[in-house]
Amino acid sequence: xxCDSCGSFKPSxxxxxxxxxxxxxxxxxxxRVAHSIKLVVQSGRWNGFRMGRRGPQLSHLFFADDLILFSxxxxxxxxxxxxxxxxxxxxxxxxxxNVKSTIFFSLNVLPETRDCIATNLxxxxxxxxxxxxxxxxxxxxxxxxxxxxxxxxxxxxEDFDDDVVKRFAAILPPSPYAKEDKLVWGxxxxxxxxxKSALSFLKGNISHSVNPFWQVIWSWASPERIRTxxxxxxxxxxLTNVQQVHRRMSSDPSCALCGEAREDNxxxxxxxxxxxxxxxxxxxQCLWSVFFSGDIRTRIEANLSGTFGRExxxxxxxxxxxxxxxxxxxxxxxxxxxxxxxxxIALIMKRVSNFVQAASLSRSTVLGPCSDEIQIxxxxxxxxxxxLNTDGSVIADSSSAVGLQLAxxxxxxxxxxxxxxxxxVNAILGTSSDLSHHxxxxxxxxxxxxxxxxxQLRHNYRxxxxxxxxxxxxxxxxx
Length: 479
Ligand SMILES: [Zn+2]
Prior knowledge:
The protein is mostly helical and about 475 residues long. It is about 45% helix and about 10% strand. The chain has 3 domains: about 20-135, no CATH class; about 220-365, no CATH class; about 385-475, Nucleotidyltransferase, domain 5 (2-Layer Sandwich), CATH 3.30.420.10. It contains 19 helices and 11 strands. The strands form 5 sheets. It has a 3-stranded parallel β-sheet with strand order 9-10-11. A two-stranded antiparallel ribbon has the order 1-2. The longest helix has 24 residues, at about 345-365. The two termini are about 50 Å apart. Residues about 395-400 have low confidence and may be disordered. The chain binds zinc ion. Pfam families: RVT_1, RVT_3, zf-RVT.
């Protein structure tokens, strides 16, 4: 807007509130005030508000077109402030509005000092600085309750859905332990990419009807290789001669065993004389017309869901095992020159019986009494050691490292820290950086543990951590 060639200019149309140029001009001008204040503070003549014993000094805050100045409550500082602002006013032609300006004193300022300063500045004294954009300008301890009216106002006035509110609530407050931002995968708990999480996300977004019979096949209780073979058969994907011709792997679709013109799924698994011989035994004659009809999917569904066998027979098992053996024997016959067994059904029934026995044995092993009872209780630390019990569910809060910090500040150098959340312990003890949104906390705790002291971090059962658990939850409801 300014350059040497055009020199200065006078705005002819005026700048009002709401004009897009107005904020820029304001920032340009007010930047000069900030610069002047900074110089005075650096010269040591202006003592601002110190945030903590070793914290930085705060002399001014500018929000949009509001200025908040902080200084020591003394007449000397009144003079310094007047000089600084006076110089700016003289240079810019602006004036200070005494009506719009207020002054707030902290409680330890004597009443006579307050009166004297207020009279000199000619500002009205306030005991409450009110709210700024609905946010209370507080002068005491900030707690959760401070912002409750603001949260209620936001939720009440805007039509936010629950998801948006939860997203707001999940934003962590600024933390002194926060490190550099990292790229994380938001669909997994630990922030790392996994195909499983991506797939479940996609499954949730794709609306297509899933054939419920897939579940029947995949929950079929027998060896994995037979289950896979059933699935391939159901989809017509086993490599019969018809399928080989279809895939340009062969030019002859006929059956190598019986010479039938087309060796497709049905022929191989059901209609080829060798296969048919297997089925005629276990399937009762009255069901043959049904059994030897229909398409491949219907037949497999009917055989795995219903029963075609004789009574007291796990027909779904017999069927599955039988079609797999039929395929196996036919291949061995064609490619290895082996004979098809003379008593195929006896072999199949033996296999089925073995599978049933193995399955029942496996169930009893899994469900059998295998847990040891252990006594859970809190135990005191060894002599010269201190124990810190932390509630794992609250460790997500940025205050969770406070226990460790206090232990360090109190001078304890041998500490047993017990947490009742195994995932938290693993996250802290893990070598790789945790990418979840609590990862920065695990990093900061790791930094604390790396100090020159002995800390044993352990997992403890919730039942032995009742006291810490109770105190942590009480703290949630403190004002
Ligand atoms: Zn055949």
